[in-house]
Amino acid sequence: MPEISRFLGIIISMYFDEHNPPHFHVQYNDYRASMDIRNLNITAGSLPAKVRGLVEEWAELHSDELLLMWETNDFHRIQPLI
Length: 82
Prior knowledge:
Elements: E1 3-7, E2 10-13, E3 23-28, E4 31-36, E5 42-45, H1 49-61, H2 63-72
Antiparallel strand pairs: 1-2, 2-3, 3-4, 4-5
């Protein structure tokens, strides 16, 4: 699973050849979640509220890039949340 970003102890990744809807995976300590790229809903797992807010902020900044990455499988690093 390619890691596409890491910030504040949060790891964001995507799997190759994943099922729809377009989503990414989040790891933070013992927490794991999948988040829909289009609406940023958690589709599986859970995250602490503060972490979810940070991930949503990051994903909103990079939503177009995330969708393109999903569609093309051209995985690369994305700027972390600063």
